[in-house]
Specification:
By secondary structure, this protein is of the alpha/beta class. The chain is built from nine helices and ten strands.
Length: about 300
């Protein structure tokens, strides 16, 4: 068995301090453009939907406005559906899938449910194709009181007045080969822990909430996505990314305990999607379409089971 090379920043067994975070930050470069890729699409959607600026990341020398898209026919007596993407900025289909859903499918829910879509929660990380924000903090472990991540805190403020009215929240993510080659090794180094290699699942899967499992809901989403792309299989240990597979394509995480985005409301139906864009069996377009199919299936199920 080959021993993984040490991560190039920090010392084995010692958590990072300010110097290591600064060294890590110096290696991050802008590789794509949030304004061109995301804000321009939101601007076009503004003709059909309401758009709200719910925060602004102050990451000197840059600032990033945070936008959410809302149903134009918002009615207080209707339940709400929340869709979030780009919590991990490098997970491209989460951003593109959220925007594609709004463009192609949101109108069919008019008068049935209020839609709130935050398509790119972490624009700094989106531009740098990274999991963390500029402080080496993972936003998707930071949805909690006194959050250390501006991205997480801003989204929680937006959603707070609606937490009891949200009936479904679907958070769009990806699992990529770089999780194993870069992001998990970086996480281990940052926290002063030994990196233990894992296995990247080939295909789509869902993460259900340990504290509020909804197996019928999860399987409805899996069934819809299976028409678009393949579903990840359990590994030889019966697991996906180290967690037991509880149903085809489904594992459990404790959302609120881990500070995950999917735990920020009191919605009865919640899930986190995971698409595998590096698969030889799927295209980028399929990954986007899988996210869209998951969103539609999640909202349809929630509305049918109110």
């Amino acid at each position: 068995m080959t021993t993984p090379a040490p991560y190039p920043i920090g010392s084995p067994g010692r958590p990072w301090g300010e110097a290591e975070v600064a060294a890590w930050l110096s290696r991050q470069t802008r590789q794509r453009n949030y304004a061109a890729d995301v804000l321009s699409v939101i601007e076009r959607l503004h003709t059909r939907f309401d758009v709200v600026e719910y925060g602004r990341l102050d990451y000197h020398p840059d600032a990033y406005p945070l936008f959410a898209i809302r149903s134009r026919d918002w009615r207080d007596e209707l339940p709400c559906a929340l869709v979030t993407g780009g919590v991990h900025g490098y997970e491209t289909s989460g951003v593109r899938g959220a925007l594609q859903f709004v463009d192609e499918h949101a109108s069919r829910y008019e008068g049935r449910v209020n839609l709130l879509v935050a398509p790119c929660v972490s624009p700094w990380a989106y531009e740098r194709i990274h999991r963390w924000n500029m402080h080496a903090v993972d936003p998707n472990r930071s949805f909690r009181e006194n959050s250390p991540a501006q991205e997480s805190a801003a989204l929680m403020r937006l959603v707070a007045p609606l937490r009891d009215r949200v009936i479904v929240h679907i958070d769009l993510h990806e699992t990529t080969d770089t999780d194993e080659s870069e992001f998990r090794p970086a996480l281990a180094a940052r926290d002063g822990k030994a990196f233990e290699p894992g296995e990247i699942p080939d295909g789509f899967y869902l993460v259900d909430d340990t504290e509020n499992p909804q197996p019928e809901f999860q399987q409805a989403v899996i069934a819809a996505v299976a028409n678009v792309t393949h579903i990840a299989q359990a590994d030889r240990n019966g697991e996906i990314i180290g967690s037991p597979v509880v149903a085809p394509g489904v594992i459990h995480y404790p959302f609120k305990q881990l500070g995950l985005c999917a735990g920020i409301t009191h919605a009865p139906y919640t899930t986190t999607t995971e698409v595998y864009p590096d698969s030889l069996r799927a295209t980028a377009e399929q990954c986007n379409a899988a996210q869209v199919a998951a969103v539609c299936a999640a909202i349809d199920f929630a509305l049918a089971h109110r």
